[in-house]
C-alpha cells in the first residue's frame, strides 16, 4: 500500500491523523496535548475499556507480551495464563484504535476529517476501504490512550498484560524501571516468528477481516505497512527488535521473575503442522538474582528457605536489629 509510506495519506503523521486536528489536540514543541473536549472522550473510552475486564485483581503482577506483528501473542498468552487471563487487564493500543474509529463513525468525523482525499478518490473509482485500513491515522492517539491506561493501572496495582511490539531497548528499560518503582513482579513472554511468517499472517488476517466486513459489515481488518513490519526485524545480530528489547528488559529489570521465548519457525499448511516451541525459559530465584534455568532457580529458592540470612549487626549499634 503506497498510501502508508512516510509522508503519504495514511502515514501516522498525515494531515488527517487525529492528533493533527486542532479541535482535538494542541501541539507545542512536538508534544500533542488533548483539548478539554477530547480529554473527556479519552476518559469515556478508558472507562468503557475497563468495563470489559470486571474480574481484574489488584496483585501488582505484570506480563509483558512482546513480539512482532502476527507473531501469535494472544495464543501464547492463553497457553500460559489459561483462565487466569481474566484476572489481568490487557492493555493493547489496537483495541483503542477500533474504539476511536467507532467514535469517529458515530460523530461523523470519520468522513469529515479522518478519511483523506486520496482514499475518497480511490473509493470513487470503485475501490472499497473499511475503517481499520485507516487505523494508522489514529495510531498516535491510540498509543497515548494505551500508555495512559497502563500508567493508571500500574499506579493502582492492577494485574496487567502489556501487549506490545517492544521495538526499542530504551522503552524496554523505561518500562522495567516503572514496574520496579510501582512494586510489581513481572514476567516477560517474547513471541517470535520470521519476517516471512509475520507478513503471511498479517495478509491472511487482513484478507479474512476484509471479506467478513464485505459480507456482514464492520470495521474490516487493520493493515500493517510492510515498511513498518520489515523495520521490526531489523534488530541487532539478526534478531527482531522486540527479541533484543525483551532480553534487555528481562536481564536488567530485577523484578522480572521469568523470561520465556516462544518461537514459530514453520507455519502450518494443509500438508504439514506448524513447528513451534518454547525456546528459552529462565527464572530468578529472588528479585535481583541472575536469570537461570527453572530447575536451578527452584534449588536456589529451596536453599534460601532452608538457610535464611541472619540480620546484619552494626558494630557501632550492637545487636538491636536496626531498631
By CATH, the architecture of one domain is named: 3-Layer(aba) Sandwich
* CATH topology description of one domain: Rossmann fold
Total helix count? 11
Number of beta strands? 8
CATH homologous superfamily annotation of one domain: P-loop containing nucleotide triphosphate hydrolases
> Which percent bin holds the helix content?
40-55%
Class based on secondary structure composition and strand pairing: alpha/beta
Widest sheet, order of strands:
4-5-3-6-7-8
Uncertain segments: none
CATH classification class of one domain? Alpha Beta
- How would you state the average pLDDT, rounded? 91
What can be said about the biggest beta sheet? Answer: 6 strands, mixed
| Percent strand | 15-25%
Overall 3D form = globular
Helix-strand string: EEHEHEHHHHEHEHHHEEH
Radius of gyration: 23 Å
Spatial separation of the terminal alpha carbons: 68 Å
